[in-house]
Design goal:
Layout: H1 31-42, H2 48-52
Length: 68
């Protein structure tokens, strides 16, 4: 499992490289982060169809190692 919430059930930001909570420097993981990581894991992130629907995710926010 990846992710966490605080005692009021609000999202706690994650470090995209370590996938650990980081309240000060972490990111709010959004669906495009997960989808981009899925494309990369499946090896289709450079496929022409994927290029038709690019994600504008800064390099520093790209999630590494989400799928193992």
């Amino acid at each position: 499992m990846v992710g966490a919430t605080d005692d009021k059930q609000f999202l706690v930001p994650l470090d995209p490289k370590t996938l650990k909570t980081d309240v000060k420097a972490g990111i709010r993981v959004r669906p495009e982060h997960v989808h981009a990581a899925l494309r990369s894991f499946a090896g289709i992130d450079n496929h022409p169809f994927a290029k038709q629907f690019p994600f504008e995710i800064p390099i520093a926010e790209q999630i590494k190692g989400l799928w193992g």
